[in-house]
Design goal:
The chain is mainly alpha-helical. The protein is built from three helices and no strands.
Amino acid sequence: MMNILSLLGAIFLIILAVLFFPLIFRILIIIAGIILVVVAFFGLATIAFPIILILLGITIIYQLITYFF
């Protein structure tokens, strides 16, 4: 179950990167998403899932800051 959630989180992270971020952030987030999927499928989903949630939180905070300022 955690593998599926980690995979969905990484896919959502990549979609968010493509929609909202400049090129350098897109590349970094896509690489991070791929690494997190690999980590999740090697049985370390308990590590990968919180990392995905933290990265999603950072991206949302970044978007709010750039939107309002």
